[in-house]
Amino acid sequence: MLERFLLVWLCISSAIAYAWPKITEALPVPIQDVFVDGKPTLPYAICITMFSIGWLLPKTEVDALFKRWPTVFAGTCVQYVTMPLLAIAVTLIVPLTEDLRTGVIMVGCVPGAMASNVLTLLARGNVSYSVSLTTSATLLSPICVPLVLRLMFGAAFPISLIMKTFIMLSWTVVIPTVFGHMLGRRYPHTQSRVTPFAKNLASLVILWIIAVVVGLNRDRLSELTFSIVGCLLFLNIGGYISGFLAGRWIGIDERMRRALALEIGMQNAGLGTTLAASIFVNRPEVLIPTALYTFGCMLTGTMLARYWSVIPPGDEPATT
Asked: What's the domain range around 64?
């Protein structure tokens, strides 16, 4: 129920976070604003989730990274080149505040989301290739993300922030993922028991991250314009189109192209939100685009996967 109706729970939890002051003011005793106070927990929440994901990564999928490395490397390059360029392009065209512009660029710089793997299955895509792409982009994120941010922001993103980003992504993403995977290999019999817990945990972390962002930006959310929504929608759909067309250029079959399209379009906005909260400490408005993108990519990704689910890939015989 939690994973299947994640978008519904996102709306409910965000609504509670937005209305929390009004909900609590009627109570006889004062209650702390748990969402605003929850900001320091975000890096730890990501860390625990990546540990669980690493535990669930099958040995065969990790080994496949080395067997199909040319197509995985090409897809990862498309991920880290296309999305930042689309983000910077749309922010040059549409007038935004400096903080919102920074948030949109942050969305374009982070790796793909694990949700793309589930939607690839629904879309009749190549799940193995999708998992390989997510794993590759995640493991390379401590190197690629700081470099991309430096290219995007120039001197406004100094060496000290590059090192801070590298360290944060290493201990919140790569180290927990690798450590979790090593334990999963050491105790393979535990995966069947860990899988439901890990999936629910990942969903709960997404809910918590977005609720905290909503709590931190209650006053600003009422001032949202069509410009920021349009920017994020353009970035999202542009990612899907770029991934599918790039797959043709790489020379992979349609099932793999569907996986690449979903992987690129569905950015890990939860990680982007946590990263933005740590880097831009006194600029909470930067977190708004990353939070909104989570809603958007979940909605459009599900719609695209549903559409593809009834259309056989071109290299697959039509069946009902």
From this structure: 43-184+195-218+226-309
